[in-house]
What we know:
- This protein is α/β, with parallel strands linked by helices.
- It folds into two domains: 8-159, Rossmann fold (3-Layer(aba) Sandwich); 192-363 and 449-502, Dihydrodipicolinate Reductase, domain 2 (2-Layer Sandwich).
- It contains 15 helices and 17 strands.
- The protein has helices at residues 26-41, 61-69, 82-91, 103-117, 136-147, 166-177, 195-205, 236-239, 243-261, 270-283, 418-421, 429-439, 448-468, 483-491, 497-502; strands spanning 14-21, 49-55, 93-97, 122-129, 154-159, 185-188, 219-227, 292-298, 300-302, 305-307, 325-331, 341-347, 354-361, 383-389, 393-401, 409-417, 473-476.
- The strands form three sheets. It has a nine-stranded mixed sheet with strand order 16-15-14-13-7-12-11-8-17, sandwiched between helices. Strands 3-2-1-4-5-6 form a six-stranded parallel sheet, with helices on both faces. A two-stranded antiparallel sheet has the order 9-10.
- The longest helix is centred in the last third of the chain and has 21 residues, at 448-468.
- It is globular and about 80 Å long.
- The model is unreliable at 1-9 (pLDDT under 50).
- Belongs to the glucose-6-phosphate dehydrogenase family.
- It comes from Micractinium conductrix.
Amino acid sequence: MQVYGLQEENWNESALSIVVVGASGDLAKKKIFPALFALYYQDMLPNHFRVFGYARSKMSDEEFRELIGGSLTCRLSDSKDCGRKMDDFLSRCFYQPGQYASDEDFGALAARMSEGEAGLAAADRLFYLSIPPNIFTAVAGAASRAASSQTGWTRMIVEKPFGKDSESFKQLSDELYQHLREDQIYRIDHYLGKELIENLTVLRFANLVFEPLWSRQYIRNVQVIFSENFGTEGRGGYFDQYGIVRDVIQNHLLQIMALFAMEQPASLDAEDIRNEKVKVLKSIQQVRLEDCVLGQYRSRTTKGTTLPGYLDDDTVPPNSITPTFAACAVFVNNARWDGVPFLLKAGKALHSRVAEIRVQFRHVPGNLYRNKLGVDLDKATNELVIRIQPNEGIYMKINNKVPGLGLRIDSTRLDLTYKAKYDTHLPDAYERLILDCINGDRRLFIRNDELEVAWEKFTPVLKEIEQRGVQPELYPYGSRGPVGAHYLAAKHGVRWGDLVDDE
């Protein structure tokens, strides 16, 4: 396996062509091209690499470079030679117009790629499918037939959504397999590329202190929380087709939960890690409607300004009942986690933007200091918080004596805030994942059977919600979400940790 950026002797052995299909889209402009430039800026790409944009729009190479050039930035902490590096990167960027299902057009792209591959021992080709899922298979078919490498590897990064339910996922999977092998398909979930998610297994398996605590004996509940402080803002047409459960919970949060709950893998090999994740997903009991709360944000007027509700978005169908908030209690039926609720919560237009894992430990039995902790023991419970974004960090809530005469106890934090500890810029998730794909490292990409099991757990409840026309509970824009979420947590004897912190 070549590791570009680490084994310089490999850099001159092969060419690397990176093709961004859907090059004129928002994701490509905002995330993919900036990530590629960041990798180049850090010398993490091989000497002989070139970037190709592919889309239906007519555009020259110069127009393409101007299009993407405006989205490239150099990090403030490392901005030497910024202009020169940017010019060098853009000189390696080319544009090829073409239809998404056309073998002939992808053949023309292959011919242009071959120009930069001549005279080298191998030619590797990476296709990033930044396109709607309804044309995944057409592109995969045309690209694999007409533009696969003959002397190196060919890989394709596929963006979510991976179907809408078990049936549509299976159809998509079967169609992709007609053109690609599993080892060529890199299903990307950008949340798995976050710094704190990759650190999750290090925290768990490289620190002896956590292993005896990581079970039902000591952990009362685990909360995986994702909240945004903005609404759909003109993207409601896309969002309304999926809803928050499909868009966030069934993929991002369930993947984080599987990484958190898995047993120690046999090695750091991608297949060993993904095998353990699949075991967790298979152990999850079927998600039930009575363990879910759905919400939809409504408009709110504050300080003379009206914040629009979901149905005020012109791209959202009138009277839509698509949820913009969901909370679910999920249970893992195995020896380590039996009876421990995993509370997954995601929502738009909430009071804050945050993504975090909160591990709430059990109350101290026979606590000597009970009368010093007040009546609300939840505020005094030990809690491990892994903050994924923003202000990445890890902190542990402990009880401590307040210095001075007398005996007062306060809840405080043992805090590792990344900005305070490390004088470095954290890489964007797309940088990490694209580099992993180039290096053939599949640990943070999703295997087919992971998605198959994940859909099996959620498809029945999603169908029940749609067949019954379940009305989401309305909550004001900028609030803490629907009241029902509090009742869901209370049903399982816990409180949402992010809300306790806010009090």
